[in-house]
């Protein structure tokens, strides 16, 4: 498999967070991974809504697993998974290929991922970047090699691009039989009107894509539920924190609501 290795030759990005000593001991368990100094304060502040330990425990992530994180974005969960898996396991970051003219957000996210991996040599050795474009025939990802695939708030992107079926088929193919697919996604409840490209999906939509690919639903959790979220905002889910797309307009109101209501679903490849 052709992969891209991140090495010390990459340029470090500036960051107010104090890097851990490269010789610092790696976390022994999930609780230590969530509280370790590999994490930035800005990400730790989001734990109130992301519930990382509870979510990853629900998905059954263990330190000796091979895990594929899909579209890791700025690396909220990567900061936890990379050191957690660096002793016994392997983390693959399935990152969409950069467009010819990437946005500032995409560039910044790439730098943040590089920063995470450069904090520790063992993390570098046990974390690899692979391209993720489900409808791209250039993908050279082996089948049946991963113990778990996890995705956090990305399904709406594939629905918008009409690549959801191909994406879930990709997840099914890379997982070993018995492997787990863990999905967290912005949720709108049945009975409410879903605005296209709002970032919200019905649970039944995500379950449909997964089961159509061959997965079996084995668990649902309300770990990441937020009953304050009414899912009917002017700029969709991005009206809420941490994005605040409306700027200062009604910011106190949206801050009080908090981050989005989210479904948390666990599937297994038979």
Describe this structure in words.
This protein has eleven helices and seven strands. A seven-stranded mixed beta sheet has the order 3-2-1-4-5-7-6. The longest helix is centred in the middle third of the chain and has 14 residues. The chain is of the alpha/beta class.
Low-confidence stretches: 1-17
| Cα Rg | 18 Å
Based on the structure given, which CATH architecture is correct? 3-Layer(aba) Sandwich
- Proportion of residues in extended strands: 15-25%
By helix and strand content, what is the structural category?
Answer: alpha/beta
Q: Quick check: average pLDDT?
A: 90
- The outline comes out as globular
CATH class: Alpha Beta
The ordered string of helix (H) and strand (E) elements is HHHHEHEHHEEHHEHEHE
Largest sheet: spatial strand order: 3-2-1-4-5-7-6
Oligomer: single chain
Give me the CATH fold name.
Rossmann fold
Number of domains: 1
Describe the structure concisely for a colleague.
InterPro entries: S-AdoMet-dep_MeTrfase_Alr7345, SAM-dependent_MTases_sf. The protein is of the alpha/beta class and 270 residues long.
Outline the secondary-structure elements.
Blueprint: H1 30-35, H2 41-44, H3 47-50, H4 52-58, E1 66-70, H5 78-85, E2 90-95, H6 104-117, H7 121-125, E3 127-131, E4 146-152, H8 155-160, H9 164-174, E5 175-186, H10 203-213, E6 216-221, H11 251-257, E7 262-268
Parallel strand pairs: 1-2, 1-4, 2-3, 4-5
Antiparallel strand pairs: 5-7, 6-7
């Amino acid at each position: 498999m052709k992969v891209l290795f991140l090495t010390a030759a990459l340029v470090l990005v500036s960051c107010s967070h104090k890097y851990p000593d490269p010789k610092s001991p790696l976390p022994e368990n999930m609780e230590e991974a969530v509280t370790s100094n590999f994490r930035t304060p800005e990400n730790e502040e989001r734990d109130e809504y992301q519930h990382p330990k509870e979510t990853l425990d629900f998905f059954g992530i263990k330190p000796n697993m091979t895990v594929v994180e899909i579209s890791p974005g700025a690396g909220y969960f990567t900061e936890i998974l990379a050191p957690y898996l660096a002793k016994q396991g392997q983390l693959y970051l399935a990152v969409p290929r950069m467009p010819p003219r990437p946005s500032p957000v995409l560039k910044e996210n790439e730098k943040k991922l590089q920063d995470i991996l450069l904090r520790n040599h063992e993390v570098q050795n046990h974390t690899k970047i692979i391209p993720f474009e489900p409808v791209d025939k250039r993908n050279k990802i082996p089948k049946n090699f991963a113990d778990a695939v996890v995705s956090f708030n990305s399904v709406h992107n594939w629905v918008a691009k009409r690549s959801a079926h191909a994406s879930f088929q990709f997840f099914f193919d890379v997982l070993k039989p018995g492997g787990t697919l863990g999905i967290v996604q912005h949720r709108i409840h049945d009975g409410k009107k879903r605005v296209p490209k709002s970032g919200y999906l019905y649970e039944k939509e995500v379950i449909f894509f997964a089961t159509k690919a061959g997965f079996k639903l084995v668990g649902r959790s309300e770990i990441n539920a937020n009953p304050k979220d009414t899912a009917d905002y002017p700029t969709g889910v991005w009206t809420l924190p941490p994005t605040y797309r409306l700027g200062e307009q009604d910011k106190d109101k949206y801050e009080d609501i908090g981050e989005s209501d989210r479904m948390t679903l666990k599937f297994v490849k038979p």
